[in-house]
Structure formats: structure tokens, C-alpha cells
Amino acid sequence: MAKTGSIPVTGLKRAVIFLGPPGAGKGTQAQEVARLYDVPHLSTGDMFRDHVGRGTPLGLKAKPIMERGELVPDEIVLGMVEERISRPDCKDGFVFDGFPRTLPQAEKLDQILGGLDFGRPVVLHFVVDSDQLVRRLTGRRTCKVGGEIYNVYVRPPKVPGRCDNDGGELMQRPDDREEVIHERLVAYERQTKPLVDYYHRQAVLQDVDGSADPEAVTQSVLRILTRAV
Ligand code: AP5
Fold first, then answer.
1. Nearest 5°: CA angle at 177, between 174 and 179?
2. Using an 8 Å Cβ cutoff, are 37 and 4 in contact?
């Protein structure tokens, strides 16, 4: 059993969904929670960035869409996610970060989960005001090697431009330019926010105050998960 603070962490056996606007801290928290529960962290954004970096056909389709701050079409996302969660490392549960993001994605995920042994998902909705989101996104830097997330304002690395874990170079995401951030926030409001109601109606949604410091947010998330699993 892993332990964090005073909260014991046991087997997950669930699909956990991190829902919230760009910059809400989904990736930061999902990395930590997946590490503590020893399950995969499934970030559809990271999967697309990996395809873009390798220049695969899927990456070539996704790249211009991501650069505009729009959502990649559902059929592309769903094919990629179905393949990923069919792999053996997902048998004990997984943490979704940035998926689902549209109603059709959520409906399809319900169907998929219905065929697995996990019961209903746990959906954590990260609430942060929009001024904070923009500041977080413009300050974000990510390790090119391990993907660790930093922030020049609130979580700077010990050595500027280098990852504390592996010394990897830190980069700024192309979609973290202010004009693209605006488009991403618009896409969130139009296409993803309706999922808050969708999961609220299913009684599986829990709000998390994402504006607290990252360690306090982790503790809130773990408290919810230990009650739910
Ligand atoms: P994706 O990579 O999923 O981006 P996003 O949802 O816009 O979310 P972000 O990664 O920007 O933010 P986050 O909430 O993870 O915040 P983070 O923890 O990094 O998607 C990118 C693109 O891919 C989309 O625009 C779309 O085109 C495509 N895509 C992906 N999934 C898709 C899908 N399902 N359907 C269709 N298209 C899809 O934190 C941000 C910063 O804040 C960091 O610097 C961090 O250090 C800092 N921070 C974190 N927590 C705190 C805190 N508590 N206090 C202070 N600072 C904090």
C-alpha cells in the first residue's frame, strides 16, 4: 500500500476522469495520482503530442487542429483511446486526463466501461477561475524527456530550463500562446463543459477546488478517491 500524507492509497480498479478547463491542473494531479495508485496516466493531449512529434499520419491530422486550439474529431480520439485501454497495463484501472471532452466521447466511454469490470467512473471536476488559468498556461514548461510539468511562476525547476528529475530540457507548448489559449477556453466552454451536467446527472461528479496549491489539491483528490474506491 502506498501512502501520502495521512491518506492511505489502495488498489484503484476504477476509471478516474479528470475534467476541467485548460490549465486547471488535470495533468499535474493525474501524474501524481497515477503514480500513487500505480496505474496508467492516460492523457489524450500527451498521446496526440507524441504522434505529432513522431510525424505519424494521426499526428499530421491532429497538429493543425491543436495549433488552432480546437478539438480533434471524436472518431480519431475514440479509436486511439479504445486501443490504449485494451492494453494489459490498464487492467487495474487508469486515470484519464483530457478525455472525454465531448458528449459523444462520454457516451462512447460509458459503453466501453459497461463492458469492463470497473463499475462507474469517478469524475473529478477541477474548478479554477479564468484569470488563473491564463497565467498558469503562459507560465507552463514541460520536460521533453519525462513530461514532468513545471511553472515559471509557481513551480519553477531548481535549474532554469532543466527538469529536476532527469535534467531534460524544458519546453513551452505551442498551444500555450495567449491567442491559442483563448480558443482552447472557448472550445472548453462550448464542447466540454456540458459534461459537467452529464456526469452530475449520473451522480458520479465531484468538484475539486483547483485553485489551492498543488499539494492541497492532491490531498483533496485523494480524499475523494479513497471514499469512492
Ligand atoms: P490537453 O493536453 O489535454 O490540454 P488541456 O485540456 O487544454 O489541458 P492542459 O494540459 O493545458 O492543462 P491541465 O489542466 O492539464 O493543467 P496542468 O496540470 O498542465 O489537450 C491539448 C489539445 O489536444 C487540445 O486542445 C485538443 O486539440 C487535443 N485533445 C486532447 N484531448 C482531446 C480530446 N479528448 N478530444 C479532442 N481533442 C483533444 O497545469 C497547467 C500549469 O499550471 C502548469 O504549469 C502547472 O505547473 C500549473 N499548476 C497546476 N496546478 C497548479 C496549482 N494547483 N496551483 C498553481 N499552479 C498550478
1. 125
2. no
User: What pLDDT, in 10s, does the model give residues 157-170?
Assistant: 999 999 999 999 99
The answer, yes or no, to whether any atom of ligand 1 lies below 6 A from the CB of 21, is no
Which of 46, 72, 185 is the pocket-test mutation for ligand 1 (most atoms within 8 Å of CB)? 72
pTM: 0.94
C-alpha cell at 131: 484569470
Query: What letter would DSSP give residue 174?
Result: G
Alpha carbon separation from 194 to 98, 103, 132 (Å, rounded): 14, 7, 21
Whether ligand 1 lies within 6 angstroms of the CB of 217 is answered as yes
Distance of CA 80 to the CA centre of its chain: 15
> What domains does the chain contain, in order, with CATH numbers?
2-39+92-219 (3.40.50.300)
CA-nearest of 125, 120, 37, 47 to 82 is 47
